[in-house]
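Posting for a labmate who doesn't have an account.
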Amino acid sequence: AAYFVGGCVRDLLLGQQPKDFDIATDARPRQIKRLFRNSRIIGRRFRLVHVTFPDKVLEISTFRAASPPLGAGPDLLIRQDNTFGTLEEDAVRRDFTINGLFYDVDTREVIDCVGGMQDLERRVVRTIGDPWVRYLEDPVRMLRAIKFAGRLDLEVDGPTYEAILDCHLEVRR
């Protein structure tokens, strides 16, 4: 199974031109590489496959699941990234609901496990899960929230914005 995922789906639904097309699949990187001679496996933390064409590169990722944090402690931050999973698990790992949408070319359906379609209709950027945890996992997500809001003329959801105000100093770390 393979689906368009993320920003390309979001942009098409908003009537915008996607800058690239990412694909998510249940196939493992070596399986993908065997299917496409014009491909190479990249990445250290999590393996991706780039399929190259003369004027495009398609990025193909295998569905990921939540990885257990390394070490003990109360935090739930992602510490490793090599756990394969299902489409639903992959959707929950993504940053914002509007980026957690999958498109099935065969059925011409959008698969939404995280409320992204509703948030597109409401025109809001909202984290998947607790925004404070998600920003501590990756502080760059705060910058991405603001970028998407500005570029796509969206509002930042209340708790998503409040967490930016609370966590903004994490960007410096």
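Reply:
Got it, the structure tokens are right above this. The beta strands are 2-5, 22-25, 39-42, 48-52, 57-62, 101-104, 109-112, 124-125, 155-156.
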